[in-house]
Specification:
Low-confidence stretches: none
Number of domains: 1
Strand content: under 5%
Helix content: over 70%
């Protein structure tokens, strides 16, 4: 699961880093409009992470959820890559929404798994090391 976790986590940030530029060059949005659209994954994550965390705590299957998040992100990245260029159209909204959902599912499954993987007296250190990495 560690390889999948790192790959999922690391695939999100390069996409997010180029999204504003993509929205400006491929779709013709100005910086302000691109900035609003750029925030979609973060808004979605803020809204659904608590719900997903509660659901994952009840259902379990954290490894399956991480794999599902990877599949959602693959769909998002492929649809972004093959979306046709157009002037001020919202073709990139679907991939941005999917990235928000995939990242939220990933974060809810992985961060909640840390206490299961380390002894209770090392939980704080484990979170610290995870954030540092």
């Amino acid at each position: 699961m560690t390889g999948t976790c790192v790959a999922t986590y690391m695939s999100i940030f390069p996409y997010i880093m180029i999204t504003s530029n993509t929205l400006q060059t491929k779709y013709g949005f100005d910086k302000i409009q691109a900035g609003y659209l750029f925030g979609i994954p973060y808004v979605i994550s803020a809204m659904i992470c608590p719900l997903l965390g509660f659901t994952i705590d009840r259902v379990g299957k954290r490894a399956l959820m991480v794999c599902l998040s990877s599949l959602i992100l693959i769909v998002a990245f492929v649809s972004s890559m093959f979306a046709p260029a157009c002037y001020r159209c919202y073709n990139e909204v679907f991939p941005l929404v999917m990235v928000g959902i995939g990242y939220s599912l990933y974060a809810s499954a992985v961060w909640g798994s840390i206490p299961y993987c380390v002894p209770p007296h090392l939980t704080g250190s484990a979170y610290g090391i995870t954030v540092a990495i």
